[in-house]
Design goal:
Shape: globular
Largest sheet: 7 strands, mixed
Oligomer: single chain
Helix content: 25-40%
Number of helices: 13
Enzyme class: transferase
Organism: Nocardioides baekrokdamisoli
Structural class: alpha/beta
Number of domains: 2
GO molecular function: adenosylmethionine-8-amino-7-oxononanoate transaminase activity; pyridoxal phosphate binding
Radius of gyration: 21 Å
Distance between the termini: 28 Å
CATH class of the largest domain: Alpha Beta
Function: Catalyzes the transfer of the alpha-amino group from S-adenosyl-L-methionine (SAM) to 7-keto-8-aminopelargonic acid (KAPA) to form 7,8-diaminopelargonic acid (DAPA). It is the only aminotransferase known to utilize SAM as an amino donor.
Order of helices and strands: HEEEHHHEHEHEHEEEHEEEHHHEEHEEH
Strand order of the largest sheet: 4-12-11-10-7-5-6
EC number: 2.6.1.62
């Protein structure tokens, strides 16, 4: 099977002709993956930050089986169904009050596409069709489809090779690190936004933590600055909480601290069971979109509001609340504090912990193959990238399991 995979199956961010090794997953249960040749290992990645409850979760399994008894999918154009309505109600209940319109989409990147489209149509409906660009932040990452790539860091990001083909937007400096003075940064962002205000439709940002662009945390005061600038200049403020939503930073949503005009959520939305995302917005934005020349939001995915995904997402949200996610995330956070012991290790540039996120940044690119094998030797699955060896474990990990992840990161650092 692995030989066939190597010859024919293209994996993410991997060469088809010279692929890096992959491991065969035989099963997954709790916080562990069973890998052929390795046995059971702790998943330190939550399957790219989505499987917050772990695997084979009884409540989510039950939701899936129950929904399959009525329907797995039905088109959403001209039809609706109870799972979508229930999920929309849940999302509205757990997000800030002005966000009461819900568009259910396929994936995180697609939700960003929709959010950008909403902002553009809002400006058209508001009589400002010339506003076609966005203000984004360096160090940011918003997805791999074309318009999300265009608002991702144009130089240090993963999509710099597409310069000249993608729309060109306006990029402000990355936010300062937590505790650093933000006045100079704020003045620079404000001046840049004011200079381009006549052509800007909105601002897009990953709140509190820039994820795949480098795992950079920053203070919520920076979000307040962006909210003020958006209000002053008539811009639509978009929060991409695909990575940060559902408790990962220690807040259920960072939008509780500063409320955006549009909110994108995904990844953990279904507890890692199925691909799904949602875009929430306000009545004001919805009215502006409706006032544009089309009169409708020009988007309609085939699998929008998939009933099976909706049912599982609702069960995941209920489980998050009933388990007491704050206690879980705090436990993980405290145990990730053990990463501090590698700060003085040669080759380590920085150690960062925010909520249930732990990051070790090296002063050189990671040897991904060697670091991955070292972590597996300690019984943990990690997926380093660029100069980062990091973890976003399932919230249900015990203290002992997080300490094992910390030991695996230490081993990966030693060879990475």
């Amino acid at each position: 099977m692995l030989a066939y995979d190597r010859e024919h199956v293209w994996h993410p961010y991997t060469s088809m002709t010279e692929p890096t090794p992959v491991r065969l997953v035989e099963s997954a249960r709790g916080v562990r993956l069973r890998l052929a040749g390795y046995g059971e290992v702790i998943d330190g990645m939550s399957s790219w930050w989505a499987a917050i409850h772990g695997y084979a979760v009884p409540e989510l399994d039950h939701a899936a089986h129950s929904q399959l008894e009525s329907m797995s999918h039905v088109m959403f154009g001209g039809l609706t169904h109870e799972p979508a309505i229930t999920l929309a109600r849940k999302l509205i209940e757990i997000t800030p009050e002005p966000l009461d319109k819900v568009f259910l989409a396929d994936s995180g990147s697609v939700s960003v596409e929709i959010a950008l489209k909403m902002a553009l149509q809002f400006q058209r409906g508001s009589g400002r069709p010339e506003r076609k660009r966005f203000l984004a932040l360096r160090g940011g990452y918003h997805g791999d489809t074309f318009h999300p790539m265009s608002v991702t860091d144009p130089d240090g990001g993963m999509h710099s090779m597409w310069r000249g083909l993608l729309p060109e937007h306006v990029f402000a400096d990355a936010p300062p690190a937590p505790g650093d003075d933000i006045d100079g940064w704020a003045a620079g962002v404000r001046a840049l936004a004011e200079h381009h205000a006549h052509e800007l439709a909105g601002i897009i940002v990953e709140p509190l933590l820039q994820g795949a662009g480098g795992m950079w945390p920053y203070d919520a005061a920076c979000l307040t600055v962006l909210r003020e600038i958006a209000d002053e200049l008539g811009l639509v403020l978009i929060f991409d909480e695909i990575a940060t939503g559902f408790g990962r930073t220690g807040h259920l949503f960072v939008s509780e601290l500063v409320t955006p005009d549009i909110l994108c959520v995904g990844k953990a939305l279904t507890g890692g069971y199925l691909t799904m995302a949602a875009v929430l917005t306000t009545g004001r934005i919805a009215q502006g979109v409706s006032d544009s020349e089309s009169g409708v939001l020009m988007h309609g995915p085939t699998f929008m509001a998939n009933p099976l995904a909706c049912a599982i997402a609702t069960a995941s949200i209920d489980l998050l609340a009933s388990r007491g996610w704050e206690t879980d995330v705090a436990r993980v956070h405290n145990a990730l504090g053990g990463l501090e012991k590698v700060r003085s290790t040669p080759g380590v540039a920085d150690v960062r912990v925010l909520g249930a996120v732990g990051v070790v940044q090296l002063d050189h690119p990671v040897d991904v193959v060697a670091a991955t094998e070292a972590a597996l030797g300690k019984g943990v699955w990690l997926r380093p990238f660029r100069d980062l060896i990091y973890t976003m474990p399932p919230y249900v990990c015990t203290t002992d399991e997080v300490e094992q992840i910390v030991a695996a990161i230490e081993a990966a650092v030693a060879v990475g």
